[in-house]
Specification:
Length: 204
Amino acid sequence: MSDESTRGQIVSAADRLFYERGYEHTSFADIAEVVGISRGNFYHHFKSKDEILKAVIEVRLAATRAMLAGWEVDHTMPVDRIRRFIDILNANRAPIMRHGCPVGSLCSELARLGHPSRHEAAGLFGLFRSWLAREFVRLGRARDADRLALHLIGRSQGVAVMANAFGDEKFIRREVRQLHAWLARNSAERNSAERNSAERNSRE
């Protein structure tokens, strides 16, 4: 097994364990056991758990960028791209009910610990925030694009927390439907404003 392959397996295993057990409750030995390597080989790649955490955050950031880029390729309309963000809750409902949101869980834990990497982890939310805001701008909501982006992220996080607390799949599905309805209303507000503006211009 190459060094690069081993390192990748370590990061992948750590990513999963940090999500399922939490960063604080995952040890070097836990990760080494999952990968199936000795502690000596482990230390050849990472000298501390903090180094692994930084690598996990980098991998998550790269994966998120790739996912968002894929949505942009798959859909030309901003409303359809935003729907993909909402549908994450449905697509990942099983792990969310067991462990919560991977981004929110990590950010909350690192903030509680006062960990130096908490700001880097929050960059995952920053990616979603800036991307959603751009899509709301394209949707015609430039004035309140960032507010709408934060509302959608905050609502999604609340759904994930409650779904994890109660293990209620129907709750997730119901909230996703409501978020789609919320998005439709905000899209309609833009269309209504455009019609009103066109009518005023025609009268003038």
